[in-house]
Amino acid sequence: MLQFDAATWRLFSEKLPQGLTLDPQGGFEMVTATRKEIVRVDGKLFDIEVFHLSEDTFDQSRFSRRRKVDLGDGMTAWVATAEDVIVQKIRWLKNANRTKDYEDILNVLRRKMELLDFEYIQDWCGKHGTLEILAKARAEVGV
């Protein structure tokens, strides 16, 4: 696991391509209780959030299971598995009750339901005390 200190973040900021700027203040994610860095994208309506990896067992598992995907034009990115997105969104929903998280859960279930490892999802939801939320979402999309 790669750990960045203040000097490394400064170097990272200096190496960003034109049009990307690292917010010098960073931030704190209230729901996950983790630090995050924010990369501003000039002229776009979105930012890139870079979350610090916590010592939480699920966060460690989710990080180890990420997949490298081809974005086209020679670009690749590391992304969380659909299962881990569902489990994390359910955790956030339990703690923050954000409507957007529930909508995201339903959308991932609808698009990936035939491919999902529900045993894995249920195991983590059981550990997090979120099986009821998972059951409700599955019933809503019919899986």
Q: What is this entry, summarized?
A:
This protein has helices at residues 6-15, 57-64, 82-96, 99-112, 118-128, 131-141, and strands spanning 20-22, 27-29, 34-41, 47-51, 67-72, 75-79. With 143 residues, it is an alpha+beta fold.
Describe this structure in words.
With 143 residues, the protein is α+β, with helices and mostly antiparallel strands. The chain has two domains: 1-54, no CATH class; 55-143, no CATH class. Helices cover 48% and strands 21% of the residues. The protein has six helices and six strands. It has helices spanning 6-15, 57-64, 82-96, 99-112, 118-128, 131-141; strands at 20-22, 27-29, 34-41, 47-51, 67-72, 75-79. Strands 1, 2, 3 and 4 form a four-stranded antiparallel sheet that branches. A hairpin with a 2-residue loop joins strand 5 (67-72) and strand 6.
Question: Which key features would you list for this structure?
Answer:
143 residues; alpha+beta; four-stranded antiparallel β-sheet; two-stranded antiparallel ribbon
SSE topology sketch:
Layout: H1 6-15, E1 20-22, E2 27-29, E3 34-41, E4 47-51, H2 57-64, E5 67-72, E6 75-79, H3 82-96, H4 99-112, H5 118-128, H6 131-141
Antiparallel strand pairs: 1-3, 2-3, 3-4, 5-6
Helix pairs in contact: 3-4, 3-5, 4-6
Helix content: 40-55%
Give the terminus-to-terminus CA distance.
Answer: 36 Å
Low-confidence stretches: none
Q: How would you characterize the largest beta sheet?
A: 4 strands, antiparallel
